[in-house]
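Incident log, structure service

09:12 report received: a user says their structure output differs between two submissions of the same chain.
09:20 pulled the input from the user's history:
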Amino acid sequence: MQTKITEILGIDYPIFQGAMAWISDEDLASAVSNAGGLGIIGTGNDTAAEVKVKVERMFTLTDKPFAVNVMLLNPHADEVMAYLVQSGVKIITTGAGNPGQYMDQIEAAGIKLIPVVASVALAKRMERIGATAVVVEGMEAGGHIGKQTTMALVPQVASAVDIPVIAAGGIGDGRGVAAALMLGAEGVQIGTLFSVSHESNAHPDFKKAVIKANDIGTAVTGNITGHPVRVLRNNLTKEYLKIEKEITSQETPDIARLDELGKGSLRRAVVEGDVKTGSVMAGQIAGLVTEENSCHDIIQNLMSEAKETYQAKSSLFN
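09:34 re-ran on a clean worker, output below:
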C-alpha cells in the first residue's frame, strides 16, 4: 500500500511501530523495518552513549528505513540529539514536548522529524517549524496519553495541516487501519500489538498479561500529576488509584507518594515479568490481541484485513 508517508520515508507499508520504553529495542525495531514498516528505537532516559550502542547495532540488523525516538523529558535529550544528528540516522520521532529547539540541527543534517502530538494546535506548530509529518495520538493508547480520542482528533488534525498525519491509539487490527485512513491519516502507529510479537523481548508474563486482557482491562493513572498513563489493571493500579483519591482533597497533594510507588515499575513488568506490582503499559485494544505473531505476519495481517474492510464497506455507498 502506497500513501504519502510510504513515499516520503521509502517504506513498503504505512505502519509505524510505537516507541515503547524497555520494549522497542533494536530486535523489535529491525524486525518491523525488515517486514516493510517503520521500526522505531525507543531511547527513554538513555544517555548518548547508550543510544549510540543501540543505533550502531541497528545498522547491522537492517538496511531498511528506521527511526529513533527522543523523549524530550529525558535529562540527556540535548546530548542524545547532538549524537543523532551526526549518526547517520535519517528519521527522528519525538515525544513529551516541543522539539523546536533542535530543528536547526535536524534540518542541517537532512533528517526527517516526526513528532508525536495530542492536539491540533501542537500539530500546526510542528508543521510551521518544518516537521515532515506528525503522529496524532489519542487517549486510547497505552503509556503516556493526552485527553482527546483518536477518532475525534485525527480528522481535525488532518484538516488543519498539509503534512502527513499518522494515527495512533486504539488501532490493533486491519479494521482500525482502514478507519484511520478514512479519517484522513496517511498511516498508523501501533504499539500494543507489536509489544507481544515474537521479536519483542518483553518478558513472557508481560505478553501473557496483554493477551489475556479484555476490553475493560486498562485503567488511567496519574491524572492528578498532569501526566496520565494507561496501563493494565493490577495490584499496582489499585494502590495507585487509591492514593490518588486520598490526596485529591489535599490542599497540596503529596505527589511524592505516587512517584515512589511508580518508581521502576515499568521495568519490573517488562524485564522482570512482575505483572502484579509492575506497570503493564498497554492500550485499550488489548482485548483484540489474542496471540503472539511475528512482526512480518502482524503487518501482513493488518494490511490484508484493511483491504478487505475497505472493499466490503465501500459497497455501502454504491
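09:41 both user submissions now match this output. Likely a transient worker issue. Closing.
09:42 reviewer note: The first strand starts at residue 15 and ends at 17. The longest helix spans residues 295-314.
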